[in-house]
Amino acid sequence: MRHSEAELRAWMTAGLDGDATAHAALLRALVPLLRSFFRRRMRGDEDIEDLVQETLIAIHTKRGTYDRDRPFTAWLYAVARYRLIDQLRRRRVVVPIESVEDILVAEGFEDAVAARMDIDRLLSGLSSKQARAIRDTQLEGLSVSEAAESAGIGQSDVKVSVHRGLKALAARLRGQE
Questions:
Q1: Distance, CA of 29 to CA of 40 (rounded, Å)
Q2: Residue 139's closest CA among 156, 155, 115, 157?
Q3: Quick one: how many helices (H) and strands (E) in the chain?
Q4: Is residue 46 scored above 60 in pLDDT?
Q5: Which 8-state DSSP code applies to residue 65?
Q6: Which of 47, 54, 66, 119 would you label with 138, given CA atoms 20 to 30 Å apart?
Q7: pLDDT tens digit string along 88-116?
């Protein structure tokens, strides 16, 4: 089962906040993603399980370096790429120069960055209160009460800000068609 960026990110942030169950769920969910990542880059299966385990250990030990404002999968695949490069160095594998770009490109990284820039561009046209309310409730998955507490405003203010902000975004998007 493939998990969404939002779900993986939620588990990661919950794990950073001390939720051991979420951290364990994250590590379990990453195993098939990492296997797939390494299988596409390695010729034999002999080192894939070792790389998956090394990467999970690196994710666990380096989790404090994750920036909560950035996409989780971009960080994940960067860690995996470094593990792969370390493995190739240890084995002294000669990789044709044409293959280097394929090894270094992280799946979804460009898409994640482009999506983040699109969202930032869309939200930049709104008031800061509307943008924050939308980001907290629609993108970060906070409840209305959590978003209100975080912003130091009332729940009804969050609801109104989200409603008006989404209405303004819809009107802007309709105008672009």
A1: 18
A2: 115
A3: 9, 0
A4: yes
A5: G
A6: 66
A7: 777 765 656 655 555 555 455 555 556 66
